[in-house]
Write a structure and sequence with these properties.
6 helices, globular
């Protein structure tokens, strides 16, 4: 079973590329970064994005998945209770979106 198929079955691997669990995504990063730095990311947004990538399609579909992911992240940022938490979270969401948009083609299942 490929990483794309596994992600589709499990609903995604969260906020990381398909290869991350195997090579980079250590327990320390999962616990520390997710809890203290990206705790406002709701994994449902990341998993829905992973499902879109696993479904695949053409480059237009990839951009559509990425834009929907950005919209979901902005919605997640809006759920934060204080503006001083929202501002840096929005900056992280913006940078993360551009990273996904630019290098996500490695993980997207093109048809």
């Amino acid at each position: 079973m490929s990483a794309h198929q596994a992600n589709k079955v499990t609903g995604g691997n969260g906020c990381g590329p398909t290869w991350m669990d195997k090579y980079v995504w250590s327990i320390w990063i999962k616990v520390f970064v997710a809890k203290y730095f990206l705790g406002w990311f709701f994994h449902a947004s990341c998993n829905k994005h992973d499902e879109g990538y696993a479904e695949g399609g053409d480059w237009v579909r990839k951009i559509y998945c990425d834009l929907r992911f950005f919209a979901a992240m902005v919605k997640d940022v809006g759920r934060l209770d204080r503006w001083y938490k929202q501002v840096p979270a929005l900056a992280v969401a913006y940078v993360y979106f551009w990273l996904v948009l630019l290098v996500g083609w490695f993980s997207f299942k093109y048809e």
